[in-house]
Each structure stands twice: as structure tokens, then as C-alpha cells.
Design brief:
Elements lengths: L4 H34 L3
Length: 41
């Protein structure tokens, strides 16, 4: 049975969105750590 096109696209977007947010969180944590390290203690 063929899934509706919009449903397939929605699932694909959700997967891409999840990957994007995972990458963004990784970058944010790295940048945050670097900022904390570079701040004068």
C-alpha cells in the first residue's frame, strides 16, 4: 500500500529536524564549554 506523499514527506522532515537539533545541541554544548573555559576565572 502506498503511503500518502504528505505523510512520507512529513516523516522525512521529522527525521531531518531531529538530526538538525541533535547537531545544534552538540555545537551549542561545545561552544558553551569553550566559552566557560575562555572566561577569566
Amino acid at each position: 500500500m502506498e503511503l500518502p506523499r504528505s505523510y512520507r514527506d512529513g516523516a522525512g522532515w521529522k527525521r531531518a529536524d531531529r538530526a538538525f537539533w541533535r547537531g545544534a545541541a552538540l555545537v551549542a554544548s561545545r561552544v558553551g564549554r569553550d566559552t566557560v573555559v575562555s572566561l577569566p576565572h
